Every structure is written in C-alpha cells, then in structure tokens.
C-alpha cells in the first residue's frame, strides 16, 4: 500500500488562457492509498464540482479573476461566507497600530528583568516597560509573567536612574 504525500500542481486542460476567468483548483490529498483506484482519475472526476471533500481529498475552487494582491482564501463556500460577514464590520489591526519586528535586545538576560530583581536592586521604573512574550499570549487574555524590558533610548536618561545605571555597569562586559 503506497500513500501519496507530495505536493504537485496538475493541469487538466490543454490550454490556460491568461486573464480569461479560469477556475483555479487547489487539491489537497489527505489520505490516499492505492486500492486499485488511480489517483489522477479520482481527482479528475471529483474536480468536476467546484468544491469537494471526502476522506481522501479536499478540492477548493477560485476564479482566476479573483486572484489579486490580497490574501487568497481557499475554503468551503460556507466558511468563505462567514469570513466575509466578519470582514464587513471589522477594523483590522494594521489600521490601529504599527506591526513590526519584536524586541531584540542583543542580551535578554540583562535587559529583560523580573519584578523580584527590580525590588531587590531598587531599580527605578521610568525606563522599564512590561515585557510580554509570544508564549504569554492566549486567545482572550495575557498570561503576564512580571517581566520588564529595560528601555533606554539614550545614555542621558540613565543620569536620573542611578540604580539602573549601576545594574547595567555590573553587566557592562556582556554589553
């Protein structure tokens, strides 16, 4: 028994005409074992429908004219309709804030500190920002771990933070 688990692109028509509204089909083979049936024949007959799903295959269709620079969604029609309803009254995150690369300190063990260390060394809080890792994020809440990022924009700001300055001096060699 052989199981096909490779990604392939198949073209069933002899000719594809650019920008002429061709239906593009995405075919995912979930679990195919050759029990006397030919996979290509099974795909050909199953792909006559615009959507198809069984234990072996999933087929999604998208009209070529709908493929543009926006993210493509290959899903069942019911799910597509739900997604469209959600999009109608949704404000995207990108319109509310800038999304950029996460924090890169170069030396996390120095620049990311715990509340206990802050209390122990009496580190001033005006250059500390709450630090939230990806692993702290859940679907509906933040599982905050009492971590803080030392956020120094310039060395002058350390003048008003002597305890923080002393802490950084201890780790100067690592910096």
Features:
175 residues; alpha+beta; 2 domains; three-stranded antiparallel sheet; 6 helices; 25% helix; 15% strand
Short description:
The protein folds into 2 domains: 23-93, no CATH class; 108-174, no CATH class. It has 6 helices and 6 strands; from the N terminus they run βαββαααβαββα.
Question: What is the 3D shape?
Answer: elongated
Low-confidence segments, given as residue ranges, are 1-5
The strand count comes to: 6
Question: What is the CA-CA span between the terminal residues?
Answer: 59 Å
Helix-and-strand structural type: alpha+beta
Tally of helical runs? 6
Number of domains: 2
Arrangement of strands in the largest sheet: 1-3-2
Give the helix proportion (percent range).
Answer: 25-40%
Look at the structure and give the mean pLDDT: 79
Gyration radius (Cα, Å) is 28 Å
Strand content: 5-15%
**What sequence of helices (H) and strands (E) makes up the elements?**
EHEEHHHEHEEH
Largest sheet: 3 strands, antiparallel
């Amino acid at each position: 028994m052989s199981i096909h688990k490779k990604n392939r692109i198949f073209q069933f028509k002899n000719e594809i005409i650019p920008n002429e509204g061709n239906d593009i089909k995405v075919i995912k083979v979930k679990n195919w074992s050759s029990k006397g049936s030919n996979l290509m024949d099974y795909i050909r007959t199953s792909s006559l429908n615009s959507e198809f799903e069984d234990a072996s295959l999933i087929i999604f269709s998208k009209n070529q004219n709908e493929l543009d620079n926006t993210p493509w969604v290959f899903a069942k029609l019911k799910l597509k309709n739900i997604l469209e309803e959600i999009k109608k009254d949704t404000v995207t995150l990108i319109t509310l804030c800038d999304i950029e690369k996460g924090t890169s300190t170069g030396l996390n063990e120095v620049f990311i500190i715990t509340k206990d260390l802050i209390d122990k060394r009496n580190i001033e809080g005006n250059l500390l920002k709450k630090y939230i890792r990806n692993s702290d994020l859940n679907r509906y809440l933040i599982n905050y771990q009492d971590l803080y990022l030392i956020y120094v924009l310039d060395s002058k700001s350390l003048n008003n933070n002597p305890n923080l300055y002393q802490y950084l001096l201890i780790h100067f060699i690592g910096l």
